Each structure stands twice: as C-alpha cells, then as structure tokens.
Amino acid sequence: MTYQDTVRPLHWTESGLEVLDxxxxxxxxxxxxxxxxxxxxxxxxxxxxxxxxxxxxAAAYGVALAAKSRYQAAPARWREGLEQDxxxxxxxxxxxxxxxxxxxxxxxxxxxxxxxxxxxLLSLARQIHADDxxxxxxxxxxGADLLEGSSGVLTHxxxxxxxxxxxxxxxxxxxSAYRRGVTNIYxxxxxxxxxxxxxxxxELNQDRIHATLIADSAAAWLMKSGAVxxxxxxxxxxxxxxxxxxxxxxxxxxVLARQHGVRFMxxxxxxxxxxxxxxGEDITIEQRAPxxxxxxxxxxHDSVITAWNPVFDVTxxxxxxxxxxxxxxxxxxxxxxxxxxxx
Length: 343
Ligand code: MRU
Known about the structure:
This protein has 2 domains: about 10-135, Four Helix Bundle (Hemerythrin (Met), subunit A) (Up-down Bundle), CATH 1.20.120; about 140-340, Rossmann fold. The chain is built from 10 helices and 14 strands. The chain has helices at about 35-45, 50-75, 80-90, 95-110, 120-145, 170-180, 195-205, 220-225, 250-260, 335-340; strands at about 10-15, 15-20, 30-35, 150-155, 185-190, 210-215, 230-235, 235-240, 245, 265, 275, 310-315, 320-325, 330. The strands form 3 sheets. A 7-stranded mixed beta sheet has the order 6-5-4-7-10-13-14, sandwiched between helices. The chain has a 4-stranded mixed beta sheet with strand order 11-8-9-12, covered by helices on one side. It has a 3-stranded antiparallel beta sheet with strand order 1-2-3, covered by helices on one side. It is globular and about 65 Å long. The mean pLDDT is about 95. The site of 5-S-methyl-1-O-phosphono-5-thio-D-ribulose has 17 residues, from helix 2 and strand 9.
C-alpha cells in the first residue's frame, strides 16, 4: 500500500534523539539533537515535541540515553541514577498518559537487565517507536471503515505524523479515508497554540492531501451546513469508562456534533488508555502559562488582564460514538465495552 506520509518528528541517530522543533513550524524546519534525559524532558516541556504518542516515544529514547551515561559513569550503580532521570522525564507534562506508559515499560525491562542496560533499552525504545507506526496504520483502516458513505470530516489539533511515530491517530484515519475518496477534510485551527493551523495544515500540505482550515469558532456553522458527517479526534488519556481527555476545544466539538447529528470518533492506541483512572473526573488537566494566550501588551507588569489556559478538556463517553484502537473499535464506549475490546 502507498501511504501519503512523509513527515517524521523524531529520528534516532548515533548522536542522540533528533527532534523536529514544532514550535517553529510552518515557517522553519529545524531539527535539534538531544543526548540526555534532561534534554529530552526539556524538548517535551517546551513542546518542541508534542502529541501523546510522540511524547511517549521521545521519553523512551530519553531513558535509553540516560542508561548509556549512567552506566558509563558508574557501572555498578546505574539504576539509582536512571531512576532519578526517569523522574525528570515523568514531570515533563502531566496529561498524556503515553509518557507514563512508556516509562513503565522501560522500568519493567530494567528490572530484567544485568550488565550494560543501554543496548536493551535502546532496542525497546525503537520497538515502541515502530509499534506506534504499525498501530496507527491499522487504526487508520479500521476508522476509515466506519466512514463508509461519508464525504466530509472535521479534525482538531494535530494528531498526525508529527504527533506520533508516523501516520497519525485521528489524522491517520483521515489519511486512510482520503485515499478511499473522503476528500472534504476540515481542520480547526486549534487555539491558542494553533496545532491545526500550523501543524496539521503543514503536514497535509507536505503530503499533498487537500484540506480546508476553519477558525475553531466556525465549527457549529460548518456542522449545520451538512458538510461533515464525522468529527475525528485523538486523545491524550482515555479513562477506563471511555471518557477522553484531548486538546482544549474537543469537548465543545462533541457537544456541537450531538446537536447537529454529526458522529464523533476518538482514535488512540491502547497505550493512551489509563486503566487506573476510572472516569474523566480523575484526569489531571495541564494548565499552561497565560503568556501562551495573552497578547504582549497585556503581559506588561501594570496590566490587570490575565488568562486561563487549560490546554486539554474531557469529553464524556456518552458523547463519543466510537473509540478506535489498534485492538479494535469500541462503539458507544462504557467500562464493560472498553474492557472487552481493549484489555
Ligand atoms: O498539547 P499537545 O499539542 O501535545 O496536544 C496534542 C493533542 O491534544 C492531540 O490531540 C493528542 O495528543 C493526540 S495525538 C495523536
């Protein structure tokens, strides 16, 4: 099968993890190499790399890099140092559970290692990276099956190759559907960080996939026009009952979709499901600096204007028609359906 999928946010190199700086897109394509866990944590915190699966993959490589330097420095005591480095990685961003999932997998592998941990941990990081791409391709096909008879879709944020190991989650479904003839693709600009306008539009343009950008505030009117039959989004954390945390604005789209008879699909690998979190009420929502939202003039010391900047929200399961994972599709999600298909 040919895939229109040329962009990659992360490359493993001899010198470390090469990261495409997503803060600079679409104006500048700039890669930077990070060779320590602290460096990778900073790349995640600063959003050079973002998107739940890509954050998890980067963290796994961060652990491998830390294992290399800790073993070189103290071959008999590498575990203590590495655990400290993992704490720094875990603190980089709070909402995307893929970060903690990847760290947990690396930790389980560490427990079985004797001798130099670097080769084994690097090989596991590479495996996590490759598995993510494979999962996305299979979710793309399963999600596209659900779109039978549809002509238009709306997506939010960036859930594409830039946010993952490649192909994308929700944008992977869009890619697969586009290949099958669903050609009216709408992308919301995704304020305030503009993942839709800056990143989704850029990566679709790179792959020559035609799309139409809308202001987030145009979504209701778009749905009322009848141009889209599905909203397709990713997730940063899915609670055991199917409530899904995703980029701020997702909940608003789900409410609008229900009002207009538009169906709502969440696409995420099972590494995004947090079985320890019973419902969306228990999900930590990241608040970022007001400065990401405030115009410069209100950042002066004498300004009385501030900003409330939650960067995720939670869509309750009852507003979701389907959750697509690499293990299968959960229709009308509930705890029972999630456990039956994804566990
Ligand atoms: O703040 P970001 O850009 O990391 O947020 C990304 C999202 O909310 C995505 O929709 C989510 O991580 C799914 S990405 C495949």
